[in-house]
């Protein structure tokens, strides 16, 4: 009855506004039925077209297609994935064709656990322990380029971040060795914002890894030299002072030191296998402070009372050592196999840490040992390092994407920001080390993008200092693993792939200024929208403007958003201008935060805009047309049936 009521209502509407069926008054009953059927068929066809436009799910793209069986072997050891430490990015490269059945045998020839993941196809990936093998199998249903990477931190983690799966339609399988990038080259260009120092004399020397600055001229440095199955690996604790030769104070055999910190007494703390140790510059002696049997201290933090906290990655615990009392404590986590990473002490004494494997943020109350865990949003893939500001807000980096963000413990609100736009590596910039300067600015390293970033929480402006690359070295060949603010407004960093360390002088004024009066735009798929933007530039270079959405929006390394006009002339003062933002037709629907970046090649500045991608109006118009045609056809069909029935009844009565 409900359907009849709807039809009657529509019939009433059409009778008053569009009495198109009156023209059929003299047509025979058969023709009337034929017209009704034709209207119904047309309506159904139009509806099917509408559903196609909005993209309802279809059968598998490989249905009825048989690809070839492809088998690959990836060996993980102290030289990375298939020797990626000594190869240019991307490496290794796996090339297949669409619909191929792909099998990857992952062989871990190291003593450490290594992860293996492939974007889209195996985000959770494999995690064989030392000496074990695992196999990953999938069908290559989607074409494009997908990152191959390790998601578990280890001593050679940085060399396992930029492999590539290339799925082509017709391109045959091909893989070949490439010439390695030279190490230890001096930059061919300099910038007014930073100074670099060569600490690695040749490629066989240890790589600069992490550091902790203590003055305008001195930083404590950890360098690392990978070993082989027959040769041990080494970590070195190094005193670096400008104008002097780097001085090694500790040579640690078969030790991988992932972090370093200096306490109020000047003692240099670092993890040494299961031990928290320190070097005392006053006595020039090395001291083992506390041992956590089976714990595996990894990252460390010193609180306001001089106590040393550490993430115990092997035992899934938080470790505490009080040098004053000599007491140690261990706090187990509620979540097993959390893969603990960064740790930091808040202004209220609470201890915060990250669980990269479980994708959680944790808080430990030292007063009672209670642990609270906060699950991260799905956009966050590999939360790695963190810092806590004076307000108690927790800032973190996501080393599996191009994002950093914050968590407010009071409101439980997560905020996520992509890094600024760049020529390459932006989808996987891999932000890593993060810390705060005395002014409250957030500083972090961009591992693959080769930049040192500063985010101002008050203005919402992101400033990125670009490390100059030697001739022939891509930005992914810089390897900016660590960055840490020090005295005199200098922010020190390691360029591990160049064998260099350096610092950014944050006191040097920047020539760029940006603002976006409209912080929200709506753009259709395959459409465009205007964006009001003010860019001011007082430098002598050429400014380009780009967009950087979150990693999940990228198709391989293809940016799904573009902006015009760009590039812009030097000595620019535009005031408020309108730019055009264009979205790809394949871009996913919904809102996201996008970085709008202006750069002169030495420094970049970004503002953040909310971009909401909607379906094209054509899709809605097609659906509306289909529904109107369908309703019209049903009304006409029902009305004709009723009229036909009435004529038959009258004929019977006449007989």
Would you write up a description of this structure?
This protein is mainly β. It folds into three domains: 69-168, Immunoglobulin-like (Sandwich), CATH 2.60.40; 194-218 and 259-508, Methylamine Dehydrogenase, Chain H (7 Propeller); 515-614, Immunoglobulin-like. The chain contains three helices and 45 strands. The strands form ten sheets. Strands 31, 32, 33, 34, 39, 41, 44 and 45 form an eight-stranded mixed β-sheet that branches. α1 packs across α3 (617-654) and α2 (29-54) runs antiparallel to α3. The two termini are 32 Å apart. Mean pLDDT is 82; it is low at 1-30, 45-59 and 170-189.
What's the architecture of the largest domain, going by CATH? 7 Propeller
Predict the CATH topology of the largest domain.
Methylamine Dehydrogenase, Chain H
Strand content: 35-45%
- Mean of the pLDDT scores? 82
Number of domain units:
3
| CATH C-level label of the largest domain | Mainly Beta
Sequence stretches where pLDDT stays below 50 over 5 or more residues: 1-30, 45-59, 170-189
Quick recap of the structure?
This protein is mostly beta strands. About 10% of the residues lie in helices and about 40% in strands.
Which keywords apply here?
655 residues, mainly beta, Immunoglobulin-like, Methylamine Dehydrogenase, Chain H, 8-stranded mixed beta sheet, 5-stranded mixed beta sheet, 3 helices, 42% strand, globular
